[in-house]
Amino acid sequence: MDQRGRRRARYVAASIEKQLGALPVIADYCRRLDLAGIIDRACPIRDLADLTHGQVIETLVANRLTSPAPLVRVTGWAGEHAVEEVFGIDPALLNDDRIGRALDAIAPELDHIVGSVGAQAISVFGLDTSRLHWDMTSISLYGAYDQIDEDHPAPKFGHPKDRRPDLKQIQAGLAVTSDGGIPVFHRAYDGGAGEIAQVVGTMTVLQKIARPRNFLLIGDSKLVSYTNVSAMIDAGTGFIAPASKAYTPAATLAALERDCATEVDYVAERDASKPAAQRGRWRVTEDTMTLTGKRKRDPAFTLRRVFVHSTARAHAAVTARAKKLDRATDDLDRLVRGLGSRHYPDQQAVTTRIAAIAAARRVTAYLRTTTGTDPTTGKPTLTWWFNQAALDTEAATDGWYALLTNLPDSVTASEILIRYKGQEVVERRYGAFKGPLAVAPMFLKNNRRITALITVICLALLIFCLIERQVRAAIAPQTTLDGLYAGRPAKPTGWLIFEALARLRLIPAANGRPPGIPQPPPLQTRLLDLLDVDPTKPR
Q1: Rounded distance between C-alpha atoms, residue 82 and residue 279, angstroms
Q2: Comparing C-alpha atoms, which of 489, 477, 526, 521 is closest to residue 503?
Q3: Which among 248, 341, 451, 457 has most CB atoms closer than 10 A?
C-alpha cells in the first residue's frame, strides 16, 4: 500500500471465460427443427469432410443471432463464443472459404430446405397456420454484381424501401403466422420483381405446408389483381387486402357517413393502457364490387368491400395535412419575397419553383397560383392560395380506407377488420430482419451467396420468433416478465430475451477439468426454465 492507502495494481492472467450467451438455446431449437439434418439430406458431402453443410449453416444462424455483423471473421467470433463446446465445431474450420462453399451448396436447394424447415416448425411447435400474413421488402446491396448467376435472383435497381435508389437491391418475401408472428416461409426475388406477380407462387407453396390447406392469406394492396384473385378463389384460399385507389376512388370514400357505420369492439395493443377516451376507435360498413378480367370470357368475381374508419388515421391525416400546408406556405412566402432576384428573375423561373414546391410538399391537388410580369418593373408576380373546396374534399376521406375480401357473409365486417389488423406483425418481423439480425449491408460477391445468406438470416429469424413465442406462452396469462428490461417488468421480446441471455458465460475445460458454467442469475435461470433448455446438457 502506498502512502495514500491505495493498493498497487498487478499483472494477472487473462480471463479464460468464453461467452455462452444464447448458444445452448439456439442449438436446442436447431435440433428441434432438424435444421442440420434437413440441410445434410438435401446437400450431402464426402465422408472425409470435417464439417457438414448443415453444421456450418447452424453455426451461421447462431452467429446471426448473437453477433450480427457483416459476414467476416466468423472464426474469431466462434473462438470467443462457446461454439466448440455447444456445437462441437473447431472454430478454425469456420474460415471464409468453408462458409462460402456451404452457401454455394445450399443455394440450389433453398426451396426444399425452406419448405421442409417451415413444415417442421409447424408440426413440432404446433403453429396455427389458418391465418398467414404476407409482405415483401427490399434489401440494398453494395457492389456492382456484374457477374450474375441466372439460376438465382438478380440484384437490380428498383424502388427500395430504404430510399437508396443509387444502390442495387434484392427483394425478400416473408409469410408469418398470426400465431406468434412466426416466419414459416420466405423467398428471395429479383431486385426489379413486381410484388403482384409473386402472390400465386407464394400461395401455392403455403398450401403445401399450411394446416389447414384452405388458409386465410392477408397482405397489402398488391395482393389484389384479377389473376391473383382468380387463383385464390380457384384454390379455395380466402384473402383480405386493402383496396388500392383503382378499386376505391377518393370520391367513394368521401361520400361515406361515419355515423352510419358500425363501431367495432376492438382495442389496439398500443392503446390497451390508455383511458378509454384516448383509445383509437374503428367503424365499418360494406358493399360489394365486381372484379373483371381483360377478356370477355373471363368470369367476373364479386368481392366484399369493407370500408373502415379509424380515428387514429383521421387524426394523423389532419396533422400531416396541416404540416405540409405550413411548409408549403413558408416556401411560397419565401418565393414571393425573392421575386425579381437572381434566383427568380422571370416568370418561367417562378413557375418552375412553384412546381417543385407543389411536388415536394404534396400540395398539387389544392395549390392554385397566378403568375405574370409587372409591366412597370419587369419583375415576375405571383398570387397563390389553397383551394378550400379541394381541401374539404380530401378532408372528407380522412380516416377512411377499404378492405377487399372473398370471405363469406358469415364473417362479419368487424371480424374482417380484426383479422386484417394482424398484418402489422409481418412489418415488425421485417424490423428484426433488418435491425437486430442485421440483414444489411451485404457485401457478398455473387447473387447465389446473397440468396443463400437471406435464407440463413430468415432461419435465424424463425428461431428468434419461436423463442419469443415460447416465453410468452410459458408466462401466460401474465404478459410481462420481472426484471427483463433495466431491472423492471417488460413484455418478452426476442431482442430482450437474447440480450438477457447474452450474459451467460462458460469456463472451458482445462487440466482434466470439464467445462463449467457459472450459476446464472435469477432472470437467466428463469428464461432457461421457460424455454425448457438445460445449458449443462449439450445436445
Answers
A1: 47
A2: 521
A3: 457
Q: Which three cell numbers stand for residue 138?
A: 427490399
Return d(Cα 379, Cα 339) in angstroms, integer: 7
Computed over its alpha carbons, how large is the radius of gyration of the chain?
A: 29
Residue-level length of the chain: 539
The string of DSSP letters for 14-51 reads PP--EE-TTHHHHHHHHHHHTHHHHHHHHS---TT-SS
Strands 301-310 and 488-490: unpaired
HSE (side-chain half, CA atoms, 13 Å) at 102:
26
Residue 160: closest CA among 193, 128, 185: 193
The region of weakest confidence among 130-139, 163-172, 298-307, 327-336 is 163-172
**Residue 20 amino acid letter:** L
Question: Tell me, what's the pLDDT at 7?
Answer: 57
Question: Does an H or E element contain 496, and which?
Answer: helix 494-501
DSSP assignment of 314-348, as one string? HHHHHHHHHHHHHHHHHHHHHHHHTBTSSSB-SHH
Burial class (CB in 10 A: 0-12, 13-18, 19+), 135: buried
Q: Which helix (H) or strand (E) holds 139?
A: strand 131-140
Q: What is the pTM of this model?
A: 0.86
Q: Which residue has cell 389473376?
A: 227
Nearest residue to 133 (alpha-carbon basis) of 94, 88, 173: 173
* Contact indicator for 421, 266 with CB cutoff of 8 Å: yes
Q: Which residues pair with 306 in a beta bridge?
A: 286, 403
Is residue 187 within 8 A of residue 207, CB to CB? The reply is no
Q: How many Cβ atoms sit within 10 Å of the Cβ of residue 107?
A: 22
The residues with which 185 forms a beta bridge, in sequence order, are 175
pLDDT (tens digit per residue) in 327-373: 999 999 999 999 999 999 999 999 999 999 999 999 999 999 999 99
Q: Closest Cα partner for 400 from 289, 291, 283, 303? A: 283
Q: Are 366 and 391 in contact (CB under 8 A)?
A: yes
pLDDT grade, residue 258 (50/70/90)? very high
Whether 49 has a pLDDT exceeding 90, the answer reads: no
Could you tell me the three cell numbers for 460?
Answer: 435465424
In this structure, what is the dihedral angle of CA atoms 491, 494, 500, 504, given to the nearest 10 degrees?
Answer: 150
Distance of CA 11 to the CA centre of its chain: 49
- With 0-12 / 13-18 / 19 or more C-beta atoms within 10 angstroms meaning exposed / middle / buried, residue 359 is exposed
Where do runs of H (alpha helix) occur along 53-149?
53-66, 74-80, 83-87, 96-106, 110-125
Query: Which residues partner with 385 through β-bridges?
Result: 368
Answer for the pair 342, 296: CB distance below 8 angstroms, yes or no: no
Burial class from Cβ neighbours inside 10 Å (0-12, 13-18, 19+) for residue 454 reads buried
- Any bridge partners for residue 67, and if so which? none
SS3 at position 182: coil
Tell me how far CA of residue 106 lies from CA of 52, 140, 449, in angstroms: 11, 22, 9
Ramachandran angles phi, psi of 141, nearest 5°: -120, 150
